[in-house]
């Protein structure tokens, strides 16, 4: 370690390495820091963030790179820096502190702890001096240190109360009331009350995709024919894709919009957002018949393959918001930038200027730069610039190509190249489903390659480790995975099974679910703990029931168990029900925070649509059957494949395969609803009629 490096220089995390040359005497979370705090009787300053976080970068520049501020931090505290993507268990526990203090959570998260890890004060970003009514970070440091020194009794009492409350909040919520067939209607009524019927999405600003809530509305629109729910999803998907939250040159979605119109985003791109939105746009295309949503899905996958895929075949975690020390600089455009990019192609210049709304004034933080969005349709643009629509479309494509080439020459935002199991699993499942739905077999192949990379490096005896770094052949054992890693990877295995018919994926999902139940289930109270039973001892072992930017690990665990119970071994279903049934009333009352739980509850109450394909899975008819199934949006669906020549294919899915044989050498399909099955059909038209019967 050089004189200019702190302890973080030995870490693997790109986020921690970003802070390795700070003058702050940072420790990673671990025994060394905790023991020093106890030995010297100093409070711990815990700072949690992630590599693509804009305000984390701001606080680093303003405070952690400031010699005077760093000196006081080093004198008064034991300073610990944590990557929330490495340690979501720590982030989950200590985010609750800010919320319990009546503030909004977020990153950077700044928490002050006693030496035994109990929190007594917390916030998020603090400026370097008093500003906008927020005390400056130096003043916070002095006040906290003084309170710990002079009012120790009060501090310890508050820390004890907050810790007790964290334990209570982190328990499984239970409401009153029976679950019924009306749960979707009740949940969607609450969602629609929060829906922005002008701009799409929920609430005002900032505006996040809230994918799980849109999933719930799409369920109701499809299963119960509710036109308002359907229209709401279509509006949200359309507005997001036309807004600045979508990268109109490369594809892919930024993390969220700072305004209500989806116009100006925070520019980081997260793998999980793009994985969730890929599946939602494909579902939207199938349910609503909008070809533009399929085009969005294809552009999104093209972006992921071009910029986010590792040599192993798996996918990186994030791309940063900042480049050259400025947020969004890589992505925004001035008229001069456009002119330089397209050269003397006047048609391309005019069409891009009008279509994307690039102006002298700009729309981005009074910089004169413009965040690209679809300000006008190409047809209206054509009319304004006096071109035929086809000519304008060609000019726009030329402009896009040249603008992207010019943008590629700019200094790029950094990338967090961790390969996270959970986020990769979200994308693997989405790629498998989307590849079938849009007839893109190469996507299914890419999903299989990514899954093989995850399985080889991260899965041991059914347990999923958290992440690996590029070039690693195996992640260290201490990178234990959390509930979301287990549940998401198990679910991805089932999605790959449905897309490929390979029974090995069912065996992988079963092994992961068994290990998940062993190490995460609360055998006394029911439900799943976020951290495993052999993980670090923290002040609380919480249950991950609320959706954040990703679906709740607990709800995904329940879904995995239910799906396994439906197709292979009914014993799994009881574990899923023990998680999901108690939180039903709470989920219906708060669907914006528990959207994934609502969807899983509806699956439990409504039952499934099961399609059993019997015959040679590589044969023409079996593949035609599969196309008919995947082309449709069929909520709560199972697809299983039985090859009469291979008994192991029926054994893998014995719950659904029992009693379903072929007719001679013919390939047949069965459609079952709530375990009541049709007679076998041997032509696509008959299968489609069964699928559409509802």
Largest sheet, in brief, is:
5 strands, mixed
- As residue ranges, the low-confidence spans are none
Separation of termini?
65 Å
Please report the number of helical segments: 28
How many distinct beta strands?
A: 20
Which helices and strands, and how do they pair?
Layout: H1 14-18, E1 26-28, H2 31-40, E2 44-49, H3 54-64, H4 67-76, E3 78-83, H5 88-100, E4 109-113, E5 119-123, H6 137-150, H7 152-169, H8 183-194, H9 211-223, H10 227-242, E6 256-257, E7 265-266, E8 269-270, H11 271-288, H12 291-307, E9 318-319, E10 322-323, E11 326-327, H13 335-342, H14 346-356, H15 378-385, H16 389-407, E12 415-416, E13 419-420, H17 421-437, H18 441-458, E14 459-460, E15 463-464, E16 467-468, H19 483-500, H20 504-520, H21 553-567, H22 571-580, H23 584-589, H24 595-606, E17 609-614, H25 620-630, E18 637-642, H26 647-652, H27 654-657, E19 668-673, E20 676-677, H28 684-693
Parallel strand pairs: 1-3, 2-3, 17-18
Antiparallel strand pairs: 2-4, 4-5, 6-7, 8-9, 9-12, 10-11, 13-16, 14-15, 17-19, 19-20
Written account of the structure:
The protein has 694 residues and is of the alpha+beta class. The chain is built from 28 helices and 20 strands. The strands form seven sheets. It has a five-stranded mixed sheet, with helices on both faces. Strands 18-17-19-20 form a four-stranded mixed sheet, with helices on both faces. Strand 6 and strand 7 (265-266) form a beta hairpin. Helix 11 packs antiparallel against helix 12, helix 13 (335-342) packs across helix 16 (389-407) and helix 17 packs antiparallel against helix 18 (441-458). The chain starts with 13 loop residues before the first helix and ends with a helix. The model has no long low-confidence stretch (mean pLDDT 95).
């Amino acid at each position: 370690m050089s004189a200019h490096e702190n302890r973080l220089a030995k870490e693997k995390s790109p986020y921690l390495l970003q802070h390795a040359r700070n003058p702050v005497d940072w420790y990673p979370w671990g025994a060394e820091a905790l023991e020093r705090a106890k030995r010297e009787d100093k409070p711990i300053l815990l700072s949690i963030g992630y590599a693509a976080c804009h305000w984390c970068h701001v606080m680093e520049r303003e405070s952690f790179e400031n010699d005077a501020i760093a000196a006081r931090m080093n004198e008064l505290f034991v300073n610990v820096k944590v990557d929330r993507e490495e340690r979501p268990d720590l982030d989950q526990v200590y985010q609750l502190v800010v919320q319990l203090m009546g503030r909004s959570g977020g990153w950077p998260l700044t928490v002050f702890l006693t030496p035994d890890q109990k929190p007594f004060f917390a916030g998020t970003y603090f400026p370097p001096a008093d500003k906008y009514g927020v005390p400056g970070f130096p003043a916070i440091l002095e006040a906290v240190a003084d309170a710990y020194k002079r009012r120790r009794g009060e501090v310890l009492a508050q820390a004890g109360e907050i810790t007790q409350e964290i334990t209570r909040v982190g328990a499984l919520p239970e409401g009153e009331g029976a679950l019924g067939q009306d749960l979707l209607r009740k949940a969607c009524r609450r969602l629609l009350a929060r829906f922005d019927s002008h701009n799409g999405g929920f609430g005002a600003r900032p505006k996040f995709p809230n994918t799980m809530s849109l999933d719930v509305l799409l369920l109701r629109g499809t299963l119960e024919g509710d036109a308002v729910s359907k229209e709401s999803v279509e509006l949200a998907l359309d507005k997001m894709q036309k807004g600045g939250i979508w990268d109109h040159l490369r594809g892919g979605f930024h993390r969220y919009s700072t305004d209500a119109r989806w116009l100006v985003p925070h520019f980081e791109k997260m793998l999980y957002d793009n994985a969730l939105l890929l599946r939602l746009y494909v579902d939207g295309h199938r349910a609503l018949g909008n070809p533009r949503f399929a085009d969005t899905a294809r552009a999104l996958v093209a972006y992921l393959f071009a910029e986010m895929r590792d040599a192993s075949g798996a996918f990186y975690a994030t791309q940063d918001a900042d480049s050259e020390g400025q947020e969004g600089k890589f992505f925004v455009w001035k008229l001069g930038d456009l002119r330089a990019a397209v050269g003397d192609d006047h048609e391309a210049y005019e069409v891009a200027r009008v279509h994307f709304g690039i102006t002298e004034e700009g729309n981005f933080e009074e910089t004169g730069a413009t965040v690209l969005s679809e300000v006008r349709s190409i047809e209206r643009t054509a009319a304004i610039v006096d071109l035929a629509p086809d000519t304008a479309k060609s000019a726009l494509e030329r402009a896009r190509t040249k603008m992207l080439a010019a943008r590629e020459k700019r200094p790029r935002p950094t990338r967090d190249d961790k390969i996270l199991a959970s986020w990769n699993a979200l994308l693997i499942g989405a790629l498998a489903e989307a590849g079938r739905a849009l007839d893109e077999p190469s996507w299914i192949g890419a999903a299989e390659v990514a899954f093989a990379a995850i399985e080889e490096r991260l899965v041991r005896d059914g347990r999923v480790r958290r992440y690996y770094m590029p070039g690693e052949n195996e992640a260290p054992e201490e990178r234990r995975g959390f509930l979301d890693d287990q549940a998401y990877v198990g679910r991805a295995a089932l999605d790959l099974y449905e897309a490929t018919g390979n029974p090995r994926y069912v065996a992988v999902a079963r092994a992961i679910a068994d290990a998940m139940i062993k190490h995460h289930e609360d055998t006394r109270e029911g439900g799943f703990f976020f951290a495993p039973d052999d993980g670090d001892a923290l002040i609380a072992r919480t249950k991950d029931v609320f959706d954040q930017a990703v679906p709740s690990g607990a709800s995904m665990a329940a879904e995995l168990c239910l799906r396994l119970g439906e197709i292979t071994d009914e014993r799994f279903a009881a574990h899923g029900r023990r998680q999901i049934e108690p939180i039903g009333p709470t989920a219906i009352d708060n669907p914006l925070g528990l959207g994934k739980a609502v969807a899983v509850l509806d699956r439990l109450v409504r039952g499934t649509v099961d399609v059993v394909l019997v015959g040679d899975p590589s044969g023409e008819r079996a593949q035609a059957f599969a196309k008919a199934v995947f082309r449709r949006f069929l909520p709560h669906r199972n697809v299983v494949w039985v090859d009469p020549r291979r008994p192991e294919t029926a054994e893998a899915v014995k719950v659904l395969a029992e009693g379903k044989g072929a007719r001679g050498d013919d390939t047949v399909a069965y459609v079952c609803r709530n375990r009541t099955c049709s007679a076998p059909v041997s032509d696509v038209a008959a299968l489609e009629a069964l699928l559409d019967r509802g």
